[in-house]
Design goal:
CATH superfamily of one domain: CorA soluble domain-like
CATH topology of one domain: Beta Polymerase, domain 2
Number of helices: 8
Largest sheet: 7 strands, mixed
Radius of gyration: 35 Å
Strand content: 5-15%
CATH class of one domain: Alpha Beta
Order of helices and strands: EEHEHHEEEEHHHHH
Number of strands: 7
Distance between the termini: 74 Å
Amino acid sequence: MDATDDPPANGLIEADLGFDGLLWAYRFSELGTAEILQGRYLREALENQENWLWLHFDLGDERTYRSISSLPHLPRSAMAKLLTTEDRQHIDSFGQVIGGVITDYENVDPLDAKRIVRWQFVLTPHLFVSARRLPAYTLNQVHLDLQSGRCYPDVLSLFTAIIHEFASATSVMLHELTGKLDEMEEQFLDQKMVSAPEVLGMVRRRLVRLHRQAVPLRAVLIHMLTERPDWFPDEAATDCQRVAERMDSLADDLESLRERGHTLHDEFNTREAEKTNKRLTVLSIVSALLLPPTLITGVFGMNVAGLPFRETPLGFVGTCALMAASVVGMLVILRRIKLL
């Protein structure tokens, strides 16, 4: 068992649960209350199908493949979906069974949009099986909710609760990134923006990662609604539609924030370009002013006969006066052509 996953209630160890690689197993009553199952009680519940169950596996354990393959009442195609290594978010129907791959954040503190994990699932009227290779944040949060007494009347309510938890985690990171953008906008208005390029680049990269996870997940939920089996009740469809709309709203917020980041980046580049142009203008003016004195010093530096002021006691003063006059003349020219 991974250190980041909470152990099953009552101090149960993995071997007692009856399946290798099983992290936890719950049986739900008609009211939706959950109890931990282990050993022969778990196997009997799987065979009888009197109440619905949630089984969660660790695919990092090589023995898990054998355990999943021994689950009763699951078609081979559904078992293959649980064991797939595909990373693309999607959902498929296998008769009365629904299976797919969903995204999640790795269960680390703080959450990091770069550390994305995938988890596979299979839904039947009496069974919810999930599996992952790395600790998943939202799955573990729902697991903690169950230990706190939260109720889920059916497998679909549990599934939508997991998606809601993912949306909540995304919202938290979105709020954090919104605060960073607000802070950078204030710095921009105050003419500061000292570390803006680095921070803004980080924010935009995180927004891209979040948006890349939210949009496909909404498509998965819509597909789940259109391809729902007969046991998928209207109430569950309404809840699934609600979580799809929440993901859609999150995607819109992410897109809006990306546009803000893009606009802020363009404004920063424009301001930096203006500063660069001003510096280049100053350098050009200085070069133009120094060009006539440079020419004069070059002429008087030639070691040839006949140079003026060579034998005059005040020759140096006259040469400096000539260079000053050339600078003044260049200033007049630059002002007339409106470069100053």
